[in-house]
Amino acid sequence: MKHCHQCEVMIPEHAHHCPHCRRRQRRGEWQLQAVLLLAAAAAAAAVLAEAC
User: Fold this and answer.
1) What is the reported pLDDT for 28?
2) Of 2, 28, 29, which Cα lies nearest the Cα of 14?
């Protein structure tokens, strides 16, 4: 069980929508942030390698 991100009611772990407030639940945001962080790090490394 987890909490709804909007109304804080306990909902099933894999629920996509809250049965109480009917709001869609966030999921997978950390994965997008990790990909963007790795892309930025790779770009910075390429710029540093080109400058040397």
Assistant:
1) 65
2) 2
